[in-house]
């Protein structure tokens, strides 16, 4: 798996000319830029897909497929394609295009130093960092506008259907007491609360815990967490899931329980934050994100790498002394 990620990144770099490399490549130590992410429309640093040659665009998609699971890559491709649908709905006045997604590289996959990349645009942000053979891929944002396209009341396209349906099924499995704990407000926040902040602000967990759920409902809560982690290839997802403190998860819902009306939910744990919001455009515009408190942008891997480097240097000095 790591070999695939490395090879795909090297392939993309190898297809770039000197000017493109200058635009695309930054230092992995540029913490300000690494942490400056977002999901709103607008330009980004790096190279935009629409300006790349066909083989270069395919190489960017090749990088995504080495990190994303097949179903999540399908979602990401659909989200990117929705930019043309949205542009048509808006009459083209915002000049949206499915090529408006940027790639930026942090370091290179040569040698022993950490490196990574980000692929990002409207409603998509995948942040990857590799250090000492380990891979981090949060924040991971997916959104959709329109979230649902219908024909005579039947769904034609809905790339993020399960994000909503699994949470509704969980509410349906709860007994009345658990549901009262889970639904913490009749009102919805304006957006996901963490937004595009570089750091998650700690907040008191609210909602219902696995211990307060029946066994079927508790299992479905874990399934929801697993679904978000399974945005990554199974090797990465397995590693992430093993880190979860399942006993201390909280699930909360805000807003209406009726379909077609604004709603929001959050799954929160000591090292996990999942947020889902569907409030804009008459509840037809989804924002969702998976984040790790200490591990976003691979900061935990970078810290471990620095500690290991200092230990190695100190050991070398002691041996030579």
3D architecture notes:
The chain has 321 residues and is an alpha+beta fold. It has eleven helices and 14 strands. It has helices at residues 2-14, 18-24, 31-34, 54-67, 70-89, 161-173, 176-182, 215-229, 234-243, 280-283, 299-320; strands spanning 25-26, 47-48, 101-106, 115-121, 124-131, 134-136, 140-144, 149-151, 154-157, 183-185, 250-255, 263-269, 272-278, 286-291. The strands form two sheets. Strands 1, 2, 3, 4, 5, 6, 7, 10, 11, 12, 13 and 14 form a twelve-stranded mixed beta sheet that branches. Strands 8-9 form a two-stranded antiparallel sheet. A hairpin with a 2-residue loop joins β12 and β13. α6 (161-173) runs antiparallel to α8. It is globular. InterPro entries: DUF3500. This is DUF3500 domain-containing protein.
Brief summary:
This is DUF3500 domain-containing protein. By secondary structure, this protein is α+β, with helices and mostly antiparallel strands.
Strand count = 14
Can you tell me the residue ranges where pLDDT is under 50 for at least 5 consecutive residues?
Answer: none
Structural class: alpha+beta
Beta-strand percent range: 15-25%
Principal-axes geometry comes out as globular
Q: Bin the helical content.
A: 40-55%
Mean of the pLDDT scores?
Answer: 95
Distance between the termini: 40 Å
Helix-strand string: HHEHEHHEEEEEEEHHEHHEEEHEH
* Rg calculated over all Cα atoms: 21 Å
Q: What is the number of helices?
A: 11
Main beta sheet: 12 strands, mixed
InterPro entries: DUF3500
Protein name: DUF3500 domain-containing protein
Organism: Streptomyces niphimycinicus
Pfam families: DUF3500
